[in-house]
Amino acid sequence: MKSSDNYESVKQEGLKQIEGYMTLDKVKSIPKLRSFLLLGSKGGVEFLEVF
Question: What is the pLDDT of residues 7-42, one digit of tens each?
Fold first, then answer.
């Protein structure tokens, strides 16, 4: 993320993208699939597991 980016809007957009991927038949058929959202910035990286 750039320092000018809004954290919440970037996070919500990432979560929306993951939700879209998880609806694909090819992805739904993968057993025990885990999904994560990684938000990187100058301060570090945040890992969020998405259910």
Answer: 889 999 999 999 999 999 999 999 999 999 999 988
Residue type (1 letter), 40: G
Nearest to 37 by CA among 28, 46, 25: 46
- In whole angstroms, give the CA distance from residue 11 to residue 6: 9
Where do the DSSP E strands lie in 1-51? 35-41, 44-50
CA distance 40 to 47: 9
Q: Is this structure's pTM higher than 0.90?
A: no
Question: What is the maximum span of the chain, computed from C-alpha positions, in angstroms?
Answer: 38
